[in-house]
Amino acid sequence: MPPSGSTFDPTTPPATGSGIDQSRSGLETREPDTCQIDEFRSFTGQPATVAESSVSGRPVRVIPPDAIVTQDYLPRRVNFFTDGAGTVVRVTCG
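RE: above sequence
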């Protein structure tokens, strides 16, 4: 809360030496495409069960609509996002 008689302007950057680390965005650094995503994009439009069973030697996650997922980032993991019918609509790494 600003001191009495002063105004707060949210567009004013914090003063230097404010103790706030401005160099970090809060996001983890992402590694390059270590899951070879191009190998798995062809599963878009197919049932998630087929996509999931076709991936071996790496972690896989099937994510239905409105699912709550952890934000842990595993560079080699393949994520298959599905629609309500269980069809893959998007593929990502992480």
